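Notebook, p. 212. Picked up where the previous page left off. The plan for this session was modest: take the two constructs that came back from the sequencing core last week, fold each one, and keep the raw output in the notebook itself so nobody has to go hunting through shared drives later. Recording the first one now, exactly as returned: residue sequence, then the structure token string.
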Amino acid sequence: MRLKRFLVGLAFSLPALSSLAVEKPSFEQYVQNLKAEAIDKGYSPEFVDTAFSQVKYLKRAVKADKNQPEFKETLDTYLPKRVPEWKVTRARQAYKDNLPLLKEISEKYGVQPRFIVSLWALETNFGRIQGKMPIIDAVTTLAYDGRRETFFKKQLFASLEILKQGHIKQDKFVGSWAGAMGQCQFIPTSFLAYAADGDGDGKKDIWNNRADVFASIANYLKREGWDDNKTWGRQVLLPEGFDHDLLMPKRSKGRSGWLKNFKKTEKSLAQWNDLGVRRMDGTELPKVDLTAALLTPDDAKGRVYLAYDNYKSLMHWNRSYYFVTSVGYLADRIGYPKVQ
């Protein structure tokens, strides 16, 4: 009988316990908690009050986060949309127009100008599309939403640090719904890690200052292992009967797993050449001392690429085969034929 009473009592208490467990503070309460945490981290109350003075819950940010499009695409459909001919033409002109600055940045950081322009073009259409959402509002909203609270709280406190350092005024501190900012679309933590002062004025203005934009892109790639003596990779042809087990596995557990797969499957160009891998015109691979992994962004019947070490740097920027392929493809179109 005692056990029965206990079970009945537990049954009645579970809904109450459940409601307590899922009870969520209001957005306003959540902001107050964030402000207190920011002050505990050493930010002054005055600074914190100013930073959060206009903060609003952005329903569209949550909607965008939860409803990102999912659809089947192949490189054959993706590349023409991502890198149309007009963008190639504009990129080659942008390369020419900015060449003195690009050369200066390139010499300092060791990154070829064509890759700087390619990332600039693909991230924000040469700085034209940067996003207009207030960064503090966006990352606070997404932290409150809770799906990726830890990640977006990190972005929030990084955002406060960017404001504190004075790189941008708060009314100009805008970006995408996910907190990607400026002409190179760095999230706040990436800004703190990679943004660079390209013109020596003491600020890292990736929103308006082209020297800072180019330097930040180059600094990111260099910090992630870029070698300007190499390119990114190349599309190749496979012989009939090629052993597809030699292809790098597509699936991996995070970046570390991807890098392990790369290392496990890479071979020298001489070895790939002996296995019958050829350039797209059917000729032998270059006789240079390089290693590369063989991968296909789609499936074994799709396009095949030899990925060099610089491919890893681009995959750190955005771990998407399609994105990296588009960056490399556009960079190649910028560089060849040589811009006059």
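Okay, moving on. Second construct, recorded in the same format:
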Amino acid sequence: MSVKVVTDSVADLPSEVTRELGITVIPLNVRFGTKVYRDGIDLTAEQFYDRLTHNETTPVTSVPSPGTFAEAYDKLAEETDEILAIIVSSKLSGTYDVALQSIGLMKQKCRVEVIDSRWAVMAEGFMVMAAARAAQAGASLDEVVDITRRNITRVDFRAAFDTLEYLKRGGRIGAAQALLGSMLKVNPIITIKDGLVEPAGRTRSRAKAIEHLYNFAMSFSHIEGIAIEDAACPDDAELLVERLSSRFPKEHIYRSRTTPVIGTHTGPGLLLVAILGDRE
């Protein structure tokens, strides 16, 4: 029986990828007022951004319940005796703690390992994909865990924002707080370092922000996976795909939309490049 891989909706994995690789995705929650939606299930990205821009109620996010993870583990335990859960950075979300604690609620007997990815979005997603591919190829749980831990230092991303206001509201801004002080109209660039949001630069225009993301991708000497994500700015994303297609065929560039949970903390206009690879 092959290892089964679990992750959370913050990984932003395209649905066709999760189906192909047999990945179980646990949704986080988005709440508008008293109404709670499961991320990517009860609320589409289009519906979410429409509400975000036209609704005075500020959405908030919450972690899945322990029972949600335990139920998923138990269901997978009917097919395997080894499960690996790869979870969004524990410094950004309490989901990792819930995924870990949920093991004690299981009714089935099964070995479950939980890894703090220290990342989010498709940087986390690429770690999950690599683990699932190794599992499908017959790797043991220990081998898949080793692959995943090695990939923590092999993924990276850069994201361009129209504004950091949403990150500030949600308390996820970390050291990128320093970018808020400028009175100039800038497009901030952020990444994640040691599990926390960090500033990675600023540009004076959207065009220069796209150029920054392009140069970031081109700085890798070897790329196993590349993804372009957007939050309600598909034209910018397609422009970046076109630029990168001179080196990476379009069919090898994953396109992903950031889920409502990510959008709650970024707002519309996020454009992101995530990569699994090496710089040397």
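Notes on construct two before I forget. The longest helix spans residues 121-136.
Flagging for discussion at group meeting.
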